[in-house]
């Protein structure tokens, strides 16, 4: 089964906005959530990692691979510090990182082929 299915399922569970494909609005709400979390929790709280991961998922849905990679890296960095290595949050973040890097690689290869054709 395609990893995109799991990402979409997770996104729909996280935010009703994502089910309506309002990913940009969902990201705005997640950003606002980060602002609230900064007032309530220390920076190492796992809630930050969960929110970063949710933003990552929204960017994946929008095919904004570089932005997705940035947020999944933030989530993974925090999770690695605070959770056991076999925790489901870490495993999901690693799956999303793999998906994102794979798609980024495909974009680079496609652009190189297009550039070579135009020469």
TrEMBL record:
Matching SUPFAM superfamilies: TPR-like (SSF48452)
InterPro entries cross-referenced by the UniProt entry: TPR-like_helical_dom_sf
Protein name per Swiss-Prot or TrEMBL: Uncharacterized protein
Lineage: Eukaryota, Metazoa, Spiralia, Gnathifera, Rotifera
